[in-house]
Every structure is written in structure tokens, then in C-alpha cells.
Amino acid sequence: MSWRGSDYNSRSSPRSGGMSTSQNPYGKLPVEEPEEEDFIQKQIKLSRQQMDEQDADLGALADSVTRLGMHALEIGNEIETQNKMLNELDEDMDDAVSGLDLVTSKTKELIKKSGGTKWFLVIVFLTLLLLVLTVLVIYT
Questions:
Q1: Helix or strand or coil: residue 98?
Q2: What torsion do the CA atoms of 56, 60, 63, 65 make, to the nearest 10 degrees?
Q3: What is the spatial distance between Cα 80 and Cα 74, in angstroms, rounded to a whole number?
Q4: If pLDDT is split at 50, 70 and 90, which confidence band does 10 have?
């Protein structure tokens, strides 16, 4: 059996849905059924809608990522500023501790020179008594 000539055109094609290609005005090209075209068009339309939705979702995601990046930069700047402030506070604390150590050592020397803890407490007590009496005299 030969597929050439009129024999080919008189046979039905599986792609033409059982229609004879002799009914096809273009000769050997298969004729597609309208239902298949509608299905394909619907699928194409559905695919385009899904792509449009995905594009919109990607746009929203890109905006969110951009905002997140901005917040990250702001947080980084704030951290740098606070680190500087903490370093300055640490330096101030070191200075205060050094000053307190100096005062403590001077107080210890004063206690030793004054005759010990006993006499130092007597001096502190008398100084406080003098301050209280001075306040009472001023306000009476």
C-alpha cells in the first residue's frame, strides 16, 4: 500500500480527529476541531493569568525585600551609633573608676595618718555633728 498520491489524501488522520484530509481545503494539513482550539486557548489564557499573578506577587515580594533592606541599613546605622555611645560610656566609666580608686587610696592614707580607724570615725562623727548644728543655727 502506498502513501503517495490520492491514497494519502483519502485516508483519515489521527490528528484530524477522524476527519478526512480530503475535506481540508489545504490538502495534507489536518483540520483541528473547535473544541481542541477552545481548550488550547483556555489553557493559554489560564497560563497568562497565572504568569500575571506571579508577576504581581514577585513585584510585591521585591517591594518587601527592598523595604527589608532599608530597615536593615537603618538598624546597622543605629547599631554603629549606639556602639560609639557605649565606647564613650566605657571610657567615662574607666575615668570614674580611676578617680574613685584615687579617692579610696587617699582616704586610706588619711586614716593611717590620723591614728587608725577609731580616730577617723571620731573625726567623721564630729564633722557630721558640726554640720547638723550649723544647719540648726541657720534655720532658727
A1: helix
A2: -120
A3: 10
A4: very low
